[in-house]
């Protein structure tokens, strides 16, 4: 079992008010690089930030790392358009950072990354993979891709108060800039990815198409961004079985209809609850308030913990321990 | 515990008769990329070759991968000058493939890679690391570096019949081309690395200096190339404890005096014997004949297996199983 995390960036994240993935816009561009290091080493090594939101909510990489300490799986990070260096080992698929989707051609590397990641997925000898993402601003590009495919539906947010109207405006501007109407990219996932998507969606969708077609069992670990990956894979003609594992925080989001997404894209959906309600540790309390919700394979990691019989109380304990290690020597959040 | 493998290339390997690390010169340039994939995934994924020598001796990556399936350690591959793509995740330190050491300035990225790898080593949160290499032609550049530092001593070979005179000629030409006499680079490891070394030695030596100085326990896993790494770290002023773990095949090599190397560079030396003598499986028999000997952390992996109480018979069984998986679908060696 291998967790494959696609880490990248889009300048769409710099649009005011879209994302909580990082304390501030300057730090946010480092978040995927830091997430990769937290996943692989337990702490940032080269990245100059610890991704903690202004309210003190840590990156979900903390939860995934905690589960990795308790359950038995490999992790592999794919450089799906990182803008800042990382000391984590990464697989190369030729992806470059995405531009603001309101540009005319924001992700020119999308078709190449899709193809390279598809080949990587096809050749990887694992029997089972879990696919995850880390990209600030990624729910907006997910909405862009879904809209371009003609699959418009709600998307989640890393903010408790989802700026969905703002996202719709951005997506409308993005389609305009590319001369596309909603649905114009149906059956053409690479067009959607290049014009209104991001390099993480491009790499992850290619990987899923390649892995699933070669007989590897694929679980999409995440929220609406992974629903967009499923939609892209379906529009690429994939008809193999796919699973989706996410957290209760996404499932409880009124902006998201996981049941219909599961039905439309033929996904076997698993929802896990890490039991963060009623906790008062900074590592977990903000999740219960609806912040962050998902990312870096958190839902998939929790599902793996569950499958291996690791009690959620043990996971929470390890989450606190990873978090405490992480902020040790830092000024701390808030 | 983390095994950190430095994977790279030098065009010195293209000089006739120096190396057995690959079936033929065209395939040899892919060996480190394939080794990284075998270590991480158990099989080549993107590399178009299975590194097996003309006589059928498989790359020592097979042994290290086998132990990784049985013992508990993480692996990280550093891109220390790969010339061909790999699907394995790699850490970037700015190293580029090395040119033939008989050029005037064969490794211009050596000082930068040394510095970047040193910082990586310093910041890595692990308590203990094991350092390994994969680079065809690497014993010749090791001899070059040792000579430039004024530490000339015998070096081992991946060939049963060590072409040591040929290596000495190449090193003499290399020193000439750079206007250096033996010993001219004493106390200046970066000069030795840049002028007569390779990007793997540069990255590994920087990493060892950084990791050891920050209090991480360091074991050098390999033969004479790792002795060169120790010499470089000592000439960089490192006085922390260092261990060296290698195989009986290196220790038995009359060209190598491990005891004096251990004394000169203050190394705590461990030698392991995987018990390949008398075996007739292609995965192991050629090792008993003195081929390959070491590489990709084989000796260090065997020492870890020993420390964790994994019986060598179990290791041999797993080596055969990794090998059989590897050549499945291939024409097979010989």
From TrEMBL, chains A, B:
<feature type="region of interest" description="Disordered">
    <location>
        <begin position="90"/>
        <end position="109"/>
    </location>
</feature>
<keyword id="KW-0328">Glycosyltransferase</keyword>
<dbReference type="InterPro" id="IPR036087">
    <property type="entry name" value="Nict_dMeBzImd_PRibTrfase_sf"/>
</dbReference>
<keyword id="KW-0808">Transferase</keyword>
<protein>
    <recommendedName>
        <fullName>UPF0284 protein ACFQJ6_15485</fullName>
    </recommendedName>
</protein>
<dbReference type="GO" id="GO:0016757">
    <property type="term" value="F:glycosyltransferase activity"/>
</dbReference>
<dbReference type="Pfam" id="PF02277">
    <property type="entry name" value="DBI_PRT"/>
</dbReference>
<comment type="similarity">
    <text>Belongs to the UPF0284 family.</text>
</comment>
<dbReference type="InterPro" id="IPR003200">
    <property type="entry name" value="Nict_dMeBzImd_PRibTrfase"/>
</dbReference>
<dbReference type="InterPro" id="IPR002805">
    <property type="entry name" value="Nict_dMeBzImd_PRibTrfase_arc"/>
</dbReference>
């Amino acid at each position: 079992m291998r967790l494959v995390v696609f880490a990248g960036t889009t300048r769409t994240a710099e649009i005011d008010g879209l994302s909580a993935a990082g304390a501030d816009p300057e730090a946010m561009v480092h978040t995927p690089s830091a997430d990769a290091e937290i996943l692989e080493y337990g702490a940032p090594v080269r990245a100059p930030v610890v991704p903690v939101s202004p309210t003190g909510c840590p990156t979900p990489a903390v939860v995934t790392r905690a589960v990795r300490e308790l359950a038995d799986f490999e992790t592999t990070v794919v450089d799906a358009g990182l803008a800042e260096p990382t000391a984590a080992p990464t697989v190369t698929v030729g992806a470059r950072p995405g531009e603001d989707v309101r540009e005319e051609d924001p992700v020119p590397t999308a078709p190449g990354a899709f193809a390279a990641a598809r080949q990587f997925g096809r050749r990887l000898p694992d029997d089972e993979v879990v696919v995850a993402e880390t990209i600030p601003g990624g729910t907006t590009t997910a909405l862009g891709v879904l809209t371009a495919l003609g699959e418009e539906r709600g998307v989640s947010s890393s903010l408790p108060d989802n700026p969905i109207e703002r996202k719709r405006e951005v997506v409308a501007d993005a389609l305009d800039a590319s001369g596309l109407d909603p649905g114009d990219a149906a059956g053409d996932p690479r067009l959607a990815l290049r014009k209104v998507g991001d390099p993480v969606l491009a790499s992850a969708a290619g990987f899923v198409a390649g892995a699933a077609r070669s007989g590897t069992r694929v679980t999409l670990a995440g929220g609406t961004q992974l629903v967009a990956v499923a939609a892209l894979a379906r529009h690429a003609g994939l008809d193999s079985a796919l699973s989706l594992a996410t957290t209760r925080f996404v499932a409880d989001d009124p902006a998201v209809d996981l049941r219909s997404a599961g039905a439309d894209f033929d996904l076997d959906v698993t929802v896990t609850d890490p039991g963060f309600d009623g906790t008062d540790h900074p590592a977990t309390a903000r999740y219960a308030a609806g912040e962050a919700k998902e990312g870096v394979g958190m839902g998939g990691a929790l599902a793996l913990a569950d499958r291996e019989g690791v009690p959620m109380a043990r996971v929470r304990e390890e989450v606190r321990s990873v978090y405490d290690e992480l902020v040790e020597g830092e000024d701390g959040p808030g």
